[in-house]
């Protein structure tokens, strides 16, 4: 279980080690096996991710969402079970853009060209990272590590996309989110290989820690992609 150092943090809770969780006022209290109680102010939390097992007592879920804290459940090997997102505050044209992508071939052609440009941008970052890694990353990522990084990327992207009113439960939005996910995965795997370079067979907790190490940069890419799409949406709406 860990949080990043940003003002708005993501809290990973490994369900198999969880003994108790509860809300005390506007603070989340968590007790893990063989650890002292930890307290997390809700004002600093953006999302809580329960991994591999849901907590037995779900009465506090409503309060988390009411306070604007999203909740995600992930199963084995990074499989996304489900997510609850706090509602987006501002309106966005992206849901309508996603809907029109389903029916407008010219818009899909435009999106494909836009994707090519964005992939080239990401590839520049990847090339720089690979140069830094040269001779220092002796192990390739294990299949389990790739699955967890993939799943955690999807969970974060769903969270960020929800801020733009893209609901992954709706097919048009899900198709657009899936497109962005595929674009970002090569970048994610290069980062994961670097942060897990000393762990040839990382466990779930180590994968989460590695993901946290580069999650701010990943979210910056997600925000940039979604903002660009939002700005360009006016051309088609």
How would you describe the overall organization of this protein?
The strands form two sheets. Strands 1-5-6-7 form a four-stranded mixed β-sheet. Strands 2-3-4 form a three-stranded antiparallel β-sheet, with no helix packed on it. The model is unreliable at 1-6 (pLDDT under 50). The chain has helices spanning 61-66, 94-101, 105-133, 143-162, 171-195, 204-233; strands spanning 9-14, 18-24, 27-32, 38-41, 45-51, 70-74, 80-84. By secondary structure, it is of the alpha/beta class. The longest helix is centred in the last third of the chain and has 30 residues, at 204-233. It contains six helices and seven strands; from the N terminus they run E-E-E-E-E-H-E-E-H-H-H-H-H. A hairpin with a 2-residue loop joins strand 2 (18-24) and strand 3 (27-32). It is globular, with a radius of gyration of 19 Å.
As residue ranges, the low-confidence spans are 1-6
- Write the element-wise H/E pattern from the N-terminal end onward: EEEEEHEEHHHHH
How far is the N terminus from the C terminus? 43 Å
Number of helices: 6
SS-based structural class? alpha/beta
Order of strands, main sheet, comes to 1-5-6-7
Radius of gyration: 19 Å
**Major sheet summary line:** 4 strands, mixed
Fraction in beta strands: 15-25%
- The helix content, as a percent range, equals 40-55%
Number of strands: 7
Which outline best applies? globular
* Average residue-wise pLDDT: 88
